């Protein structure tokens, strides 16, 4: 049941793979805030699905694993841990984004200003608001680590480095 305090957010869906401006925007209603903790859908590290036993050459799946996965993330222990949704958060893991994750982020934020904090949020699984709420010492350590993994095409200086 929706109340008068329902939150609606725009969701943009691309209509064309060639024209990034060709999008359909819909407004969806979010569930009540009381349900947000139960609907926490931060993903755990994905495990590739096993290849079906009957998969032949025409059904081949492309599944890969990075050779050195530990080089793609860094865990920052917090000097000032905090509690989130009743759980203690004592560390923040920052990870590199894949090409697909960067494309998805750009598609989701099409037409909106994308800040470094929005990108850091994608890299940590925490919201930009939670990251801004970290103690300055912890926040600096997390954002420094995140900047090391910042997607090159999203760096503000990427255009000037091509000259």
TrEMBL record:
| Pfam families per UniProt | Phage_TAC_7
Q: Where is the composition biased (Basic and acidic residues)?
A: 16-25
Chain positions covered by the region annotation Disordered: 1-25
Give the superkingdom in one word.
Bacteria
Task: Fetch the InterPro entries from UniProt.
Answer: Phage_tail_E/E
| Protein name, as recorded | Mu-like prophage FluMu protein
Organism of derivation: Rhizobium etli 8C-3
